[in-house]
Amino acid sequence: MGAAKVVRSRESAILTEDMKRLIDEQRLGFFATVCADGSPNLSPKGTIAVWDDNHLAFGNIRSPGTLENLRLNPAIEVNVVDPFTRKGYRFKGVALILDTGPDYERAIEFYRARGSKVSAFKEIVLIEIQHAQFIDSPAYDFGMSEDEIRERWERHYESLRAGKRNVPDPEIPDISTASHGSTHT
After folding, report:
1. Do 45 and 120 meet the contact criterion of CB atoms below 8 Å apart?
2. FRET label pair with 93: which of 71, 75, 115, 124, CA 20 to 30 Å apart?
3. What element of type H or E holds 62?
């Protein structure tokens, strides 16, 4: 993904309103941790939430590998991307596992207020964000607009729902057939 803007601060809010909006809208993040043998572990989580201006959270339902990794090494990266606009954010931070006590109870109430089935949660993981970076698709580097990219991905998913496979790649336009930035084929 393309252009990068890094936000680093401990004295002010790291999470911008746009970051919060995207997380709230998408409600799915991809969480990377490091296994004991040094290999990567990537796990999608549908319980991602903004905790405050500097923290994200997720409720652990069935991710024993992720939790085991975080107990050994609390470093974590989270990616949240809009699948239609191909824009999103990368968050790097340090995780704290909550499984008992007042902070855990406060986190459970937070998720209960969001309508989550908290009885399914084994732990809550609170992530102190240390770095945040905007990420986007290389398709923008080819001059495509957000509307063009969104339309291409909407058509792609409509094709899949219609049972079509092997459709043209919607991510990178064929610049030999594109005219003046138009990517409609």
Report:
1. no
2. 115
3. none
Q: Under a CB-based contact definition with an 8 Å cutoff, are residues 164 and 157 in contact?
A: no
Q: Which positions of the chain have pLDDT values less than 50? A: 1-9, 177-185
Residue 169 backbone phi and psi in degrees, to 5: -65, 115
pTM, 2 dp: 0.84
Q: Which tokens sit at 65?
A: 């590998």
d(CA 16, CA 14): 6
CA 95 from chain centre, in angstroms, equals 16
Taking the CA atoms of residue 91, residue 94, residue 97 and residue 101 in that order, the dihedral angle to the nearest 10 degrees is: -110
For the domain made up of 6-136, give the CATH fold: Pnp Oxidase; Chain A (2.30.110)
Task: Domain ranges for the chain, please list them.
Answer: 6-136, 139-185
Both tokens of 110, joined, read: 């937070």
- Helix runs in the chain, H state only: 17-26, 64-72, 101-113, 146-161
Cα separation, 12 vs 27, in Å, equals 24
Count Cβ atoms below 10 Å from residue 31 Cβ, excluding itself. 24
